[in-house]
Amino acid sequence: MVRGESRAGRLGTATEILVLTALAKAAQPDPAGALATLERALTLAAPESYIRIFLDEGPPLAGLLAQLPPSPYRDQLLAAFPDFGFTILDFGLGLTGKSKIENLKSKIVEPFSERELEVLRLMAEGYSNREIADKLIFTVATAKKHAEHIYGKLGVRSRTQAVTRAQELNLI
């Protein structure tokens, strides 16, 4: 094990615990405690640029983040959230002067692998998971897993939405 790996793992775990604690406090309700705990999570996570830990908690955490004072890291996290029916302006980020495509691209947290882009192109052409698997020589389960990753990265729930969003972003 590399020396930094265990430290990074502990930071990730500590950040996740703080995020979950903030959500629990918000549900109690303890809004002041929730925001203070979330600020500690941001302070801990910012040097490592953790994003997924925050995104996995969905709209409730996006709402809490939006209540914190603006900061570059907080704004980056809010911009990375999938479309939950909010716009970036709902979070007060004031992204003016950027095109719709630039705003959408800023929401993609993880880059696409070449294989995911291949699968996405085949999805756009109307191929089924079975046909994609046959064409790219892997199992149907692998095709489904690639589709899940694509949906997550694009912040969508269906094949049609994925293709539409990918076209908006000029990915395909």
The sequence of SSEs as H and E is HHHHHHHHHH
Form type: elongated
Structural class: mainly alpha
| Overall mean pLDDT | 79
Number of helices: 10
Radius of gyration from CA coordinates: 18 Å
Biggest sheet descriptor = none
Stretches with pLDDT under 50, minimum 5 residues: 1-5, 85-101
Number of discrete domains: 2
**Approximate helicity band:** 55-70%
**Total count of strands:** 0
What is the strand content?
A: under 5%
Summarize the structure in words:
The chain is 66% helix and 0% strand. The chain is mostly helical and 172 residues long. It folds into two domains: 3-98; 114-168, Orthogonal Bundle (Arc Repressor Mutant, subunit A). Mean pLDDT is 79; it is low at 1-5 and 85-101.
Name a few traits of the molecule.
single chain; 172 residues; mainly alpha; Arc Repressor Mutant, subunit A; 2 domains; disordered N terminus
Short characterization:
The chain is an all-alpha fold and 172 residues long. The protein has helices at 3-27, 31-45, 52-55, 58-67, 72-80, 100-106, 114-124, 129-136, 140-154, 159-168.
